[in-house]
Design brief:
single chain, mainly beta, Jelly Rolls, 4 domains, about 10% helix, about 35% strand, binds 2-acetamido-2-deoxy-beta-D-glucopyranose
Length: about 350
């Protein structure tokens, strides 16, 4: 009993001041979404930007980026790509047949220190539709948009968002927030039978396929998936690394020099896997235990790597694409001698 307490004290002393990811009560997931450090609930997050709130009030756990009021529902977080998939709301602007506006939603989203990936598109659907997206890039406000006007849903090509019934634009680089707004030229007059509403949303490229049916019925699609790029802080690798206490790429993790956005990203050394943002979490991959290694004979795992070896009496690098394994001359001679002796 005493020994256990002493051991516990020693272990805690060895671990030193506990960094958030070591706290035992940090949830590693919310519903079926895993929440890897630097993300975490209050007290487990690396900084303000990485707060995740797991909301259980509806009975089903829902992970929100930031506080639940953000309305940003996390779908997945990747520590290897530095991307996060989020659901954001669809904007709408609806009219009845007399041309009176009956509903309008103009959602806005803010991503703190993160940026909207350029892998998204801004898409608008409608036949009397002026769609506008604006947002912050650094301290400037930028905006862009598209227009689609039509007076029938005939001759509309399903599957392509080509400017009639549906229009789309790419997202400017570096945006940290967006506001969407929709307006119409003649309140959808004369078209409400097939298109009473305009809709607009930000969505990961390739995840939406236009169908002329959506002009009439798009109610079910309240939220759409988009990608957000995340990184640590605002300084690049060479500056961030000087702040040794806070720098996260430790152990067999290195700062990702190929990342050129703001802040820095970590990645495990080649041949290692794990969460590169947790100290000592990158561990050696046993290549030999996986299919795909290129050894002809024996495979020997090494830190970050593996080597191949040849059977006794053979030499070479043992690699399929290398020098392979060739019989030693002495062995050939021996075999020949045996062969001669046998015959
Ligand atoms: C778990 O993920 C699947 C697909 O990724 C999704 O359809 C399902 O609704 C999720 N379940 C919960 C409880 O979030
Ligand atoms: C975690 O997020 C909260 C809310 O934004 C913030 O108050 C807190 O300082 C963050 N934790 C750390 C360690 O920065
Ligand atoms: C459209 O809405 C306006 C205002 O709510 C209402 O006065 C009008 O009767 C409505 N028209 C139809 C056809 O429902
Ligand atoms: C977005 O909308 C919010 C209010 O909803 C407003 O405070 C903010 O200034 C708007 N931002 C831009 C870039 O239009
Ligand atoms: C932000 O504004 C300040 C002062 O108005 C300016 O000096 C700075 O260059 C701006 N930064 C960016 C990124 O636009
Ligand atoms: C579709 O377009 C063709 C020519 O582009 C036209 O002849 C035809 O009338 C159109 N159909 C309808 C239903 O508008
Ligand atoms: C709607 O149709 C009526 C009758 O065909 C026409 O007079 C009016 O200009 C049309 N309105 C719009 C906005 O196209
Ligand atoms: C790496 O982190 C994950 C998630 O916190 C944990 O489950 C795992 O045991 C860690 N692995 C190592 C080698 O520390
Ligand atoms: C293993 O490491 C050696 C020396 O660093 C390198 O030449 C070789 O390409 C590496 N092999 C693999 C499979 O990574
Ligand atoms: C085969 O030859 C290699 C050098 O070519 C040598 O290192 C190795 O010991 C030899 N093996 C045997 C079994 O003779
Ligand atoms: C090794 O050889 C295989 C075919 O045996 C080939 O598909 C593969 O690209 C080669 N790999 C390298 C690194 O040359």
């Amino acid at each position: 009993m005493h020994l256990q307490i002493v051991l516990a004290v020693v272990v805690m002393a060895l671990l030193g001041p506990s960094s958030p990811q070591n706290l035992p009560n940090c949830e590693s997931s919310c519903g079926n979404v895993s929440i890897p450090f630097p993300f975490g609930s209050y007290g487990c997050n690396y900084s303000r930007s990485f707060l995740v709130t797991c909301d259980r009030s509806s009975g089903m756990p829902i992970p929100f980026l930031g506080k639940s009021e953000s309305n940003l529902v996390i779908q997945s977080i990747s520590t290897s790509t530095g991307e996060m998939e989020l659901l954001t709301y669809v904007a709408n602007d609806c009219y009845n047949s007399s041309g009176a506006r009956i509903e309008r939603k103009q959602p806005s989203s803010r991503f703190g220190n993160f940026r909207i990936s350029t892998k998204n598109r801004f898409v608008a659907i409608g036949c009397d539709t002026h769609a506008y997206i604006s947002g912050k890039r650094g301290n400037e406000t930028i905006g862009s948009g598209c227009i689609t006007v039509c007076d029938s849903k005939n001759n509309m090509s399903d599957g392509s968002c080509s400017g009639v019934g549906c229009c789309e634009i790419s997202i400017p680089k570096g945006m940290r927030s967006f506001n969407m707004s929709l307006s119409s030229y003649s309140n959808h007059r004369n078209i409400t039978d097939f298109n009473p509403c305009s809709y607009a949303f930000v969505i990961q490229e390739g995840k939406y396929t236009f169908s002329s049916k959506n002009l009439l019925d798009f109610e079910s699609q309240e939220q759409m998936p988009m990608l957000v790029d995340w990184s640590i802080g605002n300084e690049p690798c060479d500056i961030a690394i000087k702040d040794t206490d806070n720098f996260l790429c430790k152990g067999d993790s290195e700062c990702d020099q190929s990342y050129t956005g703001s802040g820095y990203r970590c990645r495990c050394l080649p041949g290692y896997e794990g969460n590169p943002y947790i100290a000592n979490n990158c561990t050696n991959i046993d290549e030999c235990a996986r299919p795909g290694h290129r050894c002809l004979h024996d495979c020997v795992d090494r830190p970050g790597n593996y080597t191949c070896s040849c059977p006794k009496g053979f030499s070479g690098d043992g690699r399929e694409n290398g020098t392979g394994c060739t019989a030693n001359e002495s062995l050939i001679i021996k075999i020949s001698i045996i062969a001669v002796a046998v015959t």
